[in-house]
Amino acid sequence: MLSSVAERVYWLGRYMERVENSARLMDVYSSMLFDLPGNADIGWSILLDITGSQENFGEKQNPVNEMSVMKFLISDSKNHSSVVSCMKMLRENARTTREVIPSESWEQINDLYLHTKSAISISMGRQARRDIFDVIISDCQRLSGLLSGCMSHNTAYTFIQLGRCIERADMTTRIVDVGSISLLPAFKQFRKDEEYLKPFENVVWMNILRCLSGYQAYRQHINNRVKGAEVVRFLLQDDEFPKAVIYCLSALNKHLEQLPNNDEVQRAVLRVKRITSEARVDELLERGLLDFIDELQISIADIHAELSKTWFRPAEVMEEHVTVTSVKANTAVKAKQKPKASIKAKARLKVKAQAKRKVKTKTKTKA
After folding, report:
1. C-alpha to C-alpha distance for 96 and 114, rounded to whole angstroms
2. For residue 224, which phi and psi values (nearest 5 degrees)?
3. What sign does the CA torsion over 241, 245, 249, 250 have?
């Protein structure tokens, strides 16, 4: 498979997962804010921080309110992280790789893109947004099943799954970030007030689980009521729940085994698995998840960098290697130029001497 095709299907998988989880993230954040009391002054700027869009949003100098933030994260074509922009890139990657993916999947992606654009142009109210999110999530799930059931599990499918696993692990960390009470400014003044904080902690963490469709799985796994520490441990370290970070990294390892030259990427994955599995959740919640989540997201980005360097940019790496090698070789030639010339001269004299000896021998024989 060409590296360009592998890169496109890899990003197809990433954008497919990003679109779905962005919809989940915005849906759960909206639900969480509406479930909290009115005097909990939690703004929409936190959602911009979690998605990494604060700087781009600030350049537009828009007021930080519900409608402006949602429009920026859903329909702003100049925001490369918006749902519409990601869906456009998903469609483009699917269009340029139609020969390696099922035709039904291309039709599904195209229909989803057109429907979303049409729905956004009509209304961006709360109920309309909820309907849009539901369609995006269900269609992405349908597309996932279509690829799994109808596409040959070959190299192209492997790269799609690599993209999905990396993106899912990253987005799960961002969704867990929403639930960190210590990151929400409105709750800082109430951290010591257990009577105030306790019921709303449960509301937040229940919304986090529902966002990832993991509430039922959590209750089956942990019979106790919803607790922040248990939810974070479940979403980071559970090796059976498909959206947990450890599960995504384990699945990533299995898919990498089907590809050659995977040593460096495997090492990067193992580093992230070690960071995640050794995390002490209770201590992290006490001092805040922000630093740990940032470290985890940087480590996941390192996996992508190694993967890209190994399979998507081998020509550039080879070109750099050849350039360095040629510079070293030229330096060595210049340093040893005279000795090589003398060796060649001696070799020529030796050949001439041997030729003369042969001539003399033949002359003596004839005589």
Report:
1. 18
2. -75, 170
3. negative
The pTM assigned to this predicted structure is: 0.79
Please give the C-alpha separations between residue 271 and each of 40, 96, 173, 189, in angstroms, as whole numbers: 39, 34, 16, 36
Q: How far apart are CA 161 and CA 147, in angstroms?
A: 10
66/30 Cα distance (integer angstroms) = 9
In single-letter form, the type of residue at position 133 comes to F
- The per-residue pLDDT string of the chain (367 residues; one tens digit each, 9 = 90 and over) reads 788 999 999 999 999 999 999 999 888 888 777 776 665 556 788 788 878 888 888 777 678 888 899 999 999 988 888 999 999 999 999 999 999 999 999 999 999 999 999 998 888 888 899 999 999 999 999 999 999 999 999 999 999 999 999 999 999 998 887 766 544 444 455 444 444 455 677 777 888 888 888 989 998 888 777 888 888 899 999 999 999 999 999 999 999 999 999 999 999 999 999 999 988 888 887 776 778 888 899 999 999 999 999 999 754 443 433 343 343 334 433 333 333 344 344 444 444 444 444 433 333 333 3
C-alpha closest to that of 306 among 272, 263, 277, 274: 263
The domain ranges of the chain are 3-320, 336-367
Contact predicate 21/171, CB 8 Å = yes
